[in-house]
Input
Amino acid sequence: MISVSKLLCDLDAEGDGLRYDAADESGKPQITEDKQRRPVVVWNLTKQCNLYCTHCYASADTETAPGELSTREGKSLLDDLADYGAPVVLFSGGEPLVRDDLEELIAYAADRGLRPVLSTNGTLLTEERAEALRDAGLQYAGVSVDGLPERNDEFRGKEGAFDAAVRGIEHCLDAGLKTGLRYTITEHNAADLEGVVDLLTDVGLDRFCFYHLDYGGRGTEILDADLTPTERREAVRRVCEMTREYHDRGEELETLLVGNYADAGFLVEYAREHLGEARAERIHQYLRINGGDPAGERVANVDYQGNVHPTQFWQGYSLGNVRDRPFGAIWDDDSNPVLRALRNRDDQLTGKCADCRYRSICRGGSRLRALTVHDDLFAPDPQCYLTDQEVGAVGADVGLPDA
Amino acid sequence: MPTESSTLDHEVTAPRASNGREWDLFVSEDATDPPRHAGSVTAPSRDVAVEQAEQLVGRDAATLWVCPADEVTRRTTANARLANR
Output
C-alpha cells in the first residue's frame, strides 16, 4: 500500500509505522516495531459470498465450499499467527459476514494481540452486526464499492448492492468503527472515481484505497477491462490531484494506492514536477523504507481451506497448508523455491525492470501479473506505466507495454 | 511402541482446492538430494500442472515431481492436528 495522502500531504495515519517505519514521527497509535518484520496476514474465512463480483480474486460463490476451517481450527490458526508475531489479520472472503462466528474469531484475534481488520462488501453490515464487530475488537472495516450505483451493481451482480454497501458504511461509522473504501479501478469504473469519493465523503468516509486489478481468480477473465498504461497513469494522477485538492480545502482525506508499485516511481516523478526536488527525495526515501511489492514477504494469505499463498491474489499456488504445518513453519521455509525467488528477486528481474532506477521501491511490481501474462516470474509487470525516461532507460529497447 | 500422541491416527481429509485439482510439487536442486515438498498448484490437468510447476519452481530444479494431491493420504498425530495445537 502506498499512502498518497501521507507522501503528498503529510497526513498522519495509523499505518505509517508499518509502511514507512514512521511510527516515531506519528501522533497516531502505531503498530510496534518488532512486529513490522512479520507479514500482514489476509485470511479468507470462506469462499461463500452473497454477491457475485466480476473481478473476484477468490472466485467466490453463493454456496459454501467444502473444507472451510472450523471455528476451533480458526482459533488455532490465530494462535499460530499470534505466536509468530503477525501484526495484523485481515478477515476476508468470500464475504466474511456470512460466517456467524466472525465476531467470535475477531474477539479471539484481539485477545491474542493481533490487530483484526475486515474486508467486506458491506451489504450484510446491519446496525447490530456493526456494533457486535466493534465490541469484538475490530479495528477497521474496508468496504468494497466499485463505481457509482448503476456501475457498481452491474459489477457486483446485484441490483441495490451500492445502496446496501452505503448503509453498511453508515452503520459502521455510527458504531464508531474506523471505516474505509476499497475500489478496484478498471476501464469500466475509472470515470466514477471522483464521484464515488464525493458521494462517500458526504456520508462521512475519510479513507479511500484504490486497488489495481490483479490477475487472480475471476480477475484473469476480465483482463480486457484492465486499464491501458496511459489510462492507468491518468487514473493515478487523478488520485494525486484529488487528494491534494481535498487537503487544500482543509479536508483530511486519506488515500492509498494498492497493488501496483509502478505507482511508487510515479509518485516520486509527480512530486518532482509539482512539489520540488527536496520533497521528491523525501518521498523516495519513505518508499525505500516501504520496500516495494510485498508478495511473499510483508503480506501473506491463508485461504478458507488453510492453504498459504504468497498474496491473497495468488490462489493458484499454495506454499503449504496450515492443517499440515503451522503458518510460521511454512512462511519461514527457505527451501521453498517460490518464496526464495520472491524474496531475492531484485537481481533476477528482467526487461525494463533490470536497470530501472525505481527498482528498489517497486521490486518489479506484481510477480503474479508477470507470470500470468509472460509465463515468467521475473518478467516486467505488464501494468507498469512508467516511461523509458522515467525508469532511466533512455536509448535502450525497453518500450512501454502496448497501450 | 509409539505413545498415543505419536500415533499417526488422524487423517486430514479436508480438500485443498475447489476450483480444480490440486497437484503437490516436489523439487530437488541437485540430483543427489531427495525431492522436497515445494507447495502445490491448482490445475485442471496433469499437463497444465506440469507447465505451471516448471514456470514456478523449475528454474533451478534438477528433479521435479508433480503428484495429484487427492492421491496423497495425509496422516498426523493427534497433537499435530490444527485443532489441537
Residues 46-57 of chain B form the longest helix (12 residues).
